[in-house]
């Protein structure tokens, strides 16, 4: 994916295609109206949680947002460089962010499989994530704080999580080292 991806222009295009005003999309996504305007004019970059929420108002995934025309029908195998980078267009090389890479067409299979990289200090955001799905993952290396509802735990290499994604949740790397996670979500959410 090109580093020149215009998040604002893409959001503006998809909002217009759906026939929604900025205010209508903000209401559908339960975000402030000004947030839509600031993103569309590239005055601010949304967090992953905020973008997920906004795209939910359009009933599309992050994968569809960033890779709208790529067909994966009948693909079985994927090399490392063929994974869909869902976050670089938002954050570039910002070392305080996370990088989420998806295997294939999640919607086609009803399963989203991700390779996640959390740099030290990376955080999905203070706004807790909630969506209609189930998700789980295994920490491959490093340490990741996972908060689900009123439970929180720092997971290290080999430890895992599995929960109902309708519960508010958050992921943070509070350590000084990179963290790698392999996760799955069904139905796909990003």
UniProtKB/TrEMBL annotation:
Keywords tagged on the record: DNA-binding
Enumerate the spans annotated as HTH cro/C1-type domain. Answer: 11-65
Q: Name one GO molecular function term.
A: DNA-binding transcription factor activity
Q: Which SUPFAM superfamilies match?
A: lambda repressor-like DNA-binding domains (SSF47413), RmlC-like cupins (SSF51182)
Q: Determine if DNA-binding is one of this entry's keywords.
A: yes
**Signal sequence annotation:** none
One CC-aspect GO term: cytosol
Q: What is this protein called?
A: Transcriptional regulator, XRE family with cupin sensor
Q: Which organism is it from?
A: Shimia gijangensis
């Amino acid at each position: 994916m090109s580093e020149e991806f215009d998040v604002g222009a893409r959001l503006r295009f998809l909002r217009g295609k759906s026939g929604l005003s900025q205010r209508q999309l903000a209401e559908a996504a339960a975000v402030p109206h000004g947030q839509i305007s600031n993103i569309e004019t590239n005055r601010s970059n949304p967090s992953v949680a905020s973008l997920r929420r906004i795209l939910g108002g359009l009933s599309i995934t992050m994968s569809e947002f960033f890779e709208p025309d790529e067909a994966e029908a009948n693909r079985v195998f994927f090399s490392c460089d063929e994974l869909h980078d869902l976050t670089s267009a938002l954050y570039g090389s910002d070392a305080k962010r996370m990088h989420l890479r998806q295997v294939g067409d999640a919607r086609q299979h009803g399963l989203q499989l991700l390779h996640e990289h959390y740099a030290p200090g990376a955080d999905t955001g203070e706004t807790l994530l909630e969506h209609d799905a189930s998700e789980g993952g295994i920490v491959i290396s490093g340490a990741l704080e996972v908060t689900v509802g009123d439970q929180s735990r720092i997971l290290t290499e080999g430890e895992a999580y599995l929960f109902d994604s309708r519960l508010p949740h958050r992921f943070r790397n509070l350590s000084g080292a990179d963290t790698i996670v392999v996760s799955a979500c069904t139905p796909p959410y990003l």
